[in-house]
Write a structure and sequence with these properties.
- The complex is a heterodimer of chains A (472) and B (215).
- Helices cover 32% and strands 16% of the residues of chain A.
- Chain A is α/β, with parallel strands linked by helices and 472 residues long.
- In chain A, the strands form 5 sheets. Chain A has a 5-stranded parallel beta sheet. In chain A, strands 17-16-15-18-19 form a 5-stranded parallel beta sheet.
- Classes of the chains: A alpha/beta (472), B alpha/beta (215).
- Chains A and B meet through helix 2, helix 4, helix 6, helix 11 and helix 12 of A and helix 4, helix 6, helix 7 and helix 8 of B.
């Protein structure tokens, strides 16, 4: 018998029932909820007269709609200025109260982006199945968990049954060997992979990230990498458990302790692909070859190294690709063939479930320390991923560095990544953003997003345009 | 859930690859706590010339005349013809809700993003996968003849063009069964309640830390 991949093991461990029609019932250990994709699910339970199967497997936190401006935030739910946002956050509070589900509420010190909070609290652990009504749930795969986003019907399904009807995905290995250059981060690796395989490259697959570069990455870096699996088309990305994982998990609020910790660790040490495991697809990159990345277009695969140029549609043979490039250039207001360092920036956003952890903020602070953001910039926003990250950053004095540089230091939340709150781009504005999607209108109607790493965003804030952070 | 058996419907073209769910339904409309009413804001940023707000009367907004759904020949369309990787990005089920609320019952494309594909089946919406070359031909036919309609037969897994050409498509047996009969997923899973409890007992024995309560 050939060996199993990490994904095979996680799947097998959670198989409740294999059915003749090719589907399987998979048990869900942890269900995370937020305010945007859950109200209709709770309403469904009410209409059918159903109760949650296992209340204490759920954890809720509002993040998408919450204001990040201190004055508005300090008044709690009732002070949210936008009445539609306020109702949605209030509805999460009401539903969690009615169904007896633990919620980390808006002004709790532990509040933050659900994908930052889960691992930080130890609510997501190695070996778990983790789901949430949000595509960036793939983040939690960094812990050696099987984690993916679901729709609202499935949120209701998990609440009611603690299971999901699933079909097994194919196995894909993305192996990055060698070492990264100084100034190149997990975000650049993620963008380089997407640039290589495309936004549909991982469709139908569960991705495992491996190789020397991944083994050398911190948990924060691994979370960034797994977070963007969905931008490569894969619902889930994961990394095998090692000492880095165990060191990260130990001592967290919901992590096991004492003898139970030892038992868990011996089980977690099995969470890696066997040497003879088979992958349907293997993609290999060399760490040394990866440069700092900048997206120029309206899909994460429209990406080039910082020294690169915006493509010229005239040089593209494929009709569909050429049309997509023409449309993207038009939307982004860019000239074919121009260097990406020539793009003028209006705003900078450092935050989101991709890049708002302490390591990300340290990297950005190291770049702006003792400098000022360019006078041409309208705004440079730093939004920590959680209250805990914010506390840690303030203890290290990072907030002072950002404020002294002329940046804004905000309260935790999803913020300008998807602009459901007041933080958004104006029409035509270019933004260097550490978030995950550069889709049309994503950060505001007519807004133009360029995805980069935190260090690249910080350097761009100082220069007013993109610069190679390796030369910093 | 609505059943899907056989339908014949007017086809509207969505002629671009990698249509993401942000484009299908922009984030400001996700603030709704309801499951219905998203139709008027389907493809909001392509369909209207101004920035849409939740709760607005869309009949007063300036339309983008170049967008197919605003053209009289596509009025009443119930089949959307699309390109590869349709529905990529955010997991928002508001995307199939908006398509369904507008009046679409079927999408035909060469490929879909996984989460979107799965969400469609929960809402009586059938995402048909056809070969890219076939989809290309269908686009040409749609543009060439006004009133172009396709017949989609889920039972026989077949798409038929107005001139009688037939194309077979694949669909997973369990998804097909549920959609054909309009079955309630949760009700079906709860028939396995004993198996779920037996699993929990085994897993609790083996990995008790997975059952530590969130409190």
């Amino acid at each position: 018998m050939t060996g199993q991949t990490l994904y095979d093991k996680l799947w097998q461990n959670h198989l409740v029932e294999q059915r003749d029609d090719g589907s399987a019932l998979i048990y869900i250990d942890r269900h995370l909820l937020h305010e945007v994709t859950s109200p209709q699910a709770f309403e469904g339970l009410r209409l059918a007269g159903r109760q949650p199967w296992r209340r204490d497997a759920n954890l809720a936190v509002p993040d998408h709609n919450v204001p990040t401006e201190q004055r508005e935030r300090s008044g709690g739910v009732q002070a949210i200025a936008d009445p539609v946002s306020r109702l949605q956050v209030q509805t999460l509070d009401d539903n969690c109260r009615d169904f007896d589900i633990v919620e980390i509420t808006i002004n709790d010190a532990r509040q933050g982006i659900v994908h930052v909070v889960g691992p930080e609290q130890g609510a997501t652990l190695p070996g778990m199945t983790v789901v949430c009504g949000d595509s960036h749930t793939s983040t939690h795969g960094a812990l050696g968990a099987l984690a993916h986003g679901i729709g609202t019907s499935e949120v209701e399904h998990v609440l009611a049954t603690q299971c999901l009807v699933q079909q097994k995905m194919k196995n894909m290995l993305v192996r990055i060997d060698g070492a990264l250059q100084s100034g190149v981060t997990a975000k650049d690796v993620a963008l380089a992979i997407i640039g290589d395989i495309g936004t549909a490259g991982g469709t139908g697959h569960a991705i495992e990230f491996g190789g020397e570069v991944v083994r050398a990455m911190s948990m924060e870096g691994r979370m960034t990498l797994c977070n963007m699996s969905i931008e490569a088309g894969a619902r889930m990305g994961m990394v095998a458990v090692d000492e880095t994982t165990l060191d990260y998990v130990k001592g967290r609020t919901y992590a096991p302790t004492g003898q139970m910790w030892d038992r868990a660790v011996s089980a977690w040490r099995e969470l890696h692909s066997d040497p003879d495991a088979r992958f349907e697809r293997i993609v290999e990159l060399r760490g040394e070859d990866i440069e700092p990345q900048v997206t120029w277009g309206t899909s994460p695969e429209m990406v080039v190294p910082v020294g690169g140029r915006v493509p010229d549609p005239a040089a593209i043979d494929n009709d569909s690709k050429r049309h997509a490039v023409i449309r993207a250039l038009q939307y982004m207001g860019l000239e074919a063939g121009m260097p990406v360092t020539g793009i003028h920036l209006d705003r900078v956003f450092i935050g989101s479930c991709t890049n708002s952890r302490i390591e990300d903020l340290r990297a950005a602070a190291a770049v702006v320390k003792g400098r000022r953001v360019a006078a041409s910039l309208k705004q440079a926003l730093v939004v920590p991923g959680s209250g805990k990250v914010k506390q840690q950053a303030e203890a290290e004095g990072l907030d002072r560095i950002f404020l002294d540089a002329g940046m804004e230091w905000r309260e935790p939340g999803c913020s300008m990544c998807l602009a459901m709150n007041a933080d958004k781009l104006g029409a035509g504005e270019h933004c260097a953003s550490t978030s995950n999607r550069n889709f049309e209108g994503r950060q505001g109607f007519g807004g133009r997003t360029h995805l980069v790493s935190p260090a690249m965003a910080a350097a761009a804030a100082v220069a007013g345009h993109f610069v190679d952070v390796r030369d910093w | 859930m609505k059943k899907f058996t056989v339908m014949q419907g007017l086809v509207a073209p969505m002629d671009r690859a990698n249509v993401d769910t942000d484009l299908i339904i922009p984030k400001q409309f996700l603030k709704s706590i309801k499951r219905s009413g998203f139709g008027p804001n389907l493809f909001d940023e392509l369909r209207y010339l101004d920035e849409g707000q939740p709760g607005q009367d869309c009949s007063q907004r300036p339309l983008n005349p170049d967008f197919p759904l605003n053209q009289p020949r596509y009025r009443g369309a119930s089949v959307l013809l699309a390109r590869e990787n349709f529905g990529c990005g955010s997991s928002r089920e508001h995307a199939p809700w908006a398509l369904e609320d507008y009046g679409f019952r079927c999408i035909v494309a060469p490929s879909y993003a996984d989460i979107f594909y799965n969400n469609c089946f929960k809402n009586g919406l059938l995402p048909v996968v056809l070969d890219a070359q076939v989809v290309e031909e269908l686009f040409e036919q749609v543009y060439a003849s006004e009133g172009y309609a396709l017949t989609i037969d889920l039972e026989n897994q077949r798409v038929q063009t107005p001139d009688g050409e037939c194309y077979g498509f694949e669909v997973d047996a369990f998804r097909k069964h549920r959609l054909l009969h309009g079955l309630d997923d949760i009700g079906l899973t709860l028939e396995s309640a004993a198996a779920i409890r037996a699993y929990e007992e085994r897993a609790r024995e083996q990995s008790p830390w997975l059952f530590d309560a969130i409190r």
